[in-house]
Amino acid sequence: MTKRNDPSGFAAAIYRDDLAVPEGVVQGEHEHHDTFHSTRASIYRDRKFVIHTTYKIEIDGKPLTMHTKVLDDGSVHCHGLPNYSFSSALDMVKKIIDSERPLPNDELGSDCGDPDGHGEGSGHDGQA
Amino acid sequence: MGMGKGAGMTGRRSNILTSSSARNDYLRGCVLLDQEDSGVTAQDVFNFLRSNIPSLPMRGIQQDLSTYDLFVLWHVATMSIQLSVGNAAHGGPIFLPWHRMYLIRLEQQLQRVLADPNFALPYWDWAADGEIQPPNQQWQTILWSSTHLGDARNEVNSGQLGAMRVRLWQSGGVLWSIDPRPIERDAGRDVPDLPNEDDVIQAHQESQYDQPSWGMGSVSHRNRLEGWLNGPQLHNRVHVWVGGDMSPGTSPNDPVFFLNHCNVDRIWEAWMANHGRVYRPSPTEGPAGHRLNDQMVAILGESMRPEDVLDPTEWYDYDSLK
Description:
The structure holds 2 protein chains of 2 kinds. By secondary structure, chain A is of the alpha+beta class. In chain A, 11% of the residues lie in helices and 23% in strands. In chain A, 30% of the residues are buried. Classes of the chains: A alpha+beta, B alpha/beta. At the A-B interface, β1 and α1 of A face β2, α2, β3, β7 and β8 of B.
């Protein structure tokens, strides 16, 4: 690769630990859980109703830890497939499995163990 | 670097299928940015994420990253910042202004490597291709040939983009630094067809930019254009239709990403031409992180607010809003 002549200026934020993030960040939203709760609420003919949905998904006995939720229209969405919405959680899991790829060993010093609750190099948490 | 508003030069964004100069410059510029060592390594990114965005863990190999890779990082990192509604770039009102800022920054980098201060991004009018019947012809047009964007399915080895390499790839909640490989696509498999002209008309007919509940259920121009209503539609559907590297949060790995978003931006601009340069939520309503005067997440260059980008004419305009 050719070398750009202003790396420190262009990418300065990467060398700081004070990235400006918006007010209202939800801390811990994407921590690795194995169950996910969705709440949908609405009012119809002056009656207020709430629908609670909980997903607990396992692949080969291991929990899927990607954040998963139900949208207002009843479709299912997961964080790792950010543009997809599925009419069935079964279809979502099939897509996740289809998208698995071999992953390299870690050389970057991660000390968080297996961040998604799956074996080293498995792609169960991911997609292409 | 003169990256803020008022940098002085403007360009006219044009259709990638009809402007051969914009097309060739764009493809050449993306390759140049992908072959330019940014001076940032995977280890630097690992340290940055651990300090700033711990919700996005990183693993994989140590390697040098290109300037283009840093745009991939910016996107996946921002969407890992969760707000009470959506994230810092998607699933809420901030979707359109954040991507407008993001495209402006890429356009400025392309102007630099191309040594052309008037260069402007091309757009892909995917709704026109969505009219092609039968649908399996939509991924067999000249756009997906070696003279244009290269292969529609499997590895992209043909054309100028065959020289690009993917180094950062999101797998679920983890950002992986991987052995460099070609871009991958899987066009027309997960959904059979692209959005069409009727879909765009529906987005134009929404009278509100956004409104409560603000998120993925909001009946509004933003949400219809982002594609969550009866989704995936419009913007989302283009990601899903192309597939492969357009699927995860590292989707800017495929330069088709910017062609899609340039067209999304053009549709928003056409909506504002009819409805006024209006935006909601105002500074006193709605979810934090999406309001008119909230700072948007910027990893490269200076941050901007939605109100800074509502009128883009200091940077660019479009050859057509039709």
